[in-house]
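FAQ
Q: What does a multi-component entry look like?
A: The components come first, one per line:
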Amino acid sequence: MTERRAITGSWIAAIAISVAFFFAADAYALRLGTLLAMYVALASGWNIIGGMAGYPSFATAAFFGLGAYAGALVQQKGVPMPLAWAFGALVPAVAALAIGWVVLRLRGHYFAIASFAVAIVLRELTTNWTSLTGGGMGVNLPVLQISVIEQARLFFAAQTTLAAIAAAISALVAYSSLGFALTCIRQNETAAGMLGLDARRAKAAAFALSAALAGAAGAIYASSIFYIDPGDVFDVLIAVKPILMAMLGGAGTVAGPVLGAAVFFGFEQTVWAHFLSIHSGVLGVLVVALALFLPRGLLRWKRAGKAA
Amino acid sequence: METRREGRVSALLEVQGVSVRFGGLAALDDVSLKAEQGEILGLIGPNGAGKTTFINAVSGAVKARGSMRFDGSSIAGLRPHQVARLGIARTYQMVQPFPEMSALDNVAAGALFSGAASSLPDARKRAEAVLERVGLAQQARRPADELTLAQRKRLEVAKGLASRPRMLLLDEVNAGLSGPEIDDALRLIRSIAAEGVVVLLVEHLMRVVSSLCDRVIVLHHGRLIANGDPASVLADEAVIEAYLGRRYAERAAARGRA
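Then the predicted structure of the entire assembly, as tokens:
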């Protein structure tokens, strides 16, 4: 009961802060808020396949980039933005079903490496399929004829709504039969199959949901910066950061990725900015520290302490 | 019973000419057998004889050649979850729990995934009843990896039972248990069979085999070398040679005369 009250309270607080921020913040602050919301969406999305099902996917960058390109290309053809974003979610979801059919047969490190390769392949494909994607030249999106602050508000609202949808989907999955099945897969996939679970279908569903959220985030991102190129939207950091965020907060939980995204964002804005030349080194240190001191995340820090 | 076996009622499980090869090794070589409603079958043989491979073949965990029919329809080539949904549950020699999940949720998984339960709450309700039955009601909230070995073995049986199977394949569920624990296990297995569930158990304890099984099947080097009632199978010359050993046979014979 207290847990339910804490969850309701968090939702109300998050919505209230977002609404207040929407009206009060300037364009710069709104852009930062938009980035944070995108992190929440990406981390919550990754968490469904990576945290709940325990399949360490590095394909987030692939789906983010695919969503960005899908959304950008139809927007160029004159499709309205919200529809383009929905399309940006749909294309990666379908791709995830197809790719998942193959790579979800692998487990552990093998799956991680295969999923990592997906982004590389898509990036090469996008760079070389010049007639469709503009290749390395990238894609220009229609510029909006509204003021700077209105633009900032629009994309803040879009990414924040997506973040809320991601958190809600993650909560719905966690408390449904699908979430239960994913937990069983993470704990012992062989045993789950022997009890009658079609693990392949459950994993494919998780992978597709995860891809749809990453794709929508990518499509909104593309609209918000008006220009994308393969190196930007298929960047490996887009795959790595959500994993770090989810693990930081507590992979497999609903609140963990949200909390982790916020902490990571704060860390990135304060510390990171001062280490621009060696920031991938700082990222490495963070990964090691996380594995050593917080293997189960901030949310379960106290509980792990009690058990020890 | 005898007339029913001869009669029109077909066997629940009918396996014909089943072979499993691992590279050049025939782990299972042309095995044929039938299992009928309410039977308790013992599957014995030396280590490496193919007992676990047989269970793996039936449950879809390894690819097998030959014909396998369950309740009249072919189960050859099905994936494990499909076999499970048809009503064949199994346990593993090495227990396979969901270690961090509660005993209750471990069993609920069996009820949910097999389709016996319509929803997760329904599955948990069924799981409670099954845990009660196998004597783990007190442990329902504890994570599976905190249970004792005997409790984890019972948990495996409970997971299978929760799926409402028509056939239960038990792979050495009594290995490593103490005398009283085995007695509990035997009572449980008898009560399961009394409900009409076919039980096929891989077993090394001859005490269990002779007191529990209606029929005993002996595998040796992947081949079926004996199939019949326990008394005659355990006295069979080939079985003694391959598995039981001369000394066991002499002691058993001495007990028989006394």
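Q: Is there any commentary attached?
A: Sometimes. For this entry: Residues 179-194 of chain B form the longest helix (16 residues).
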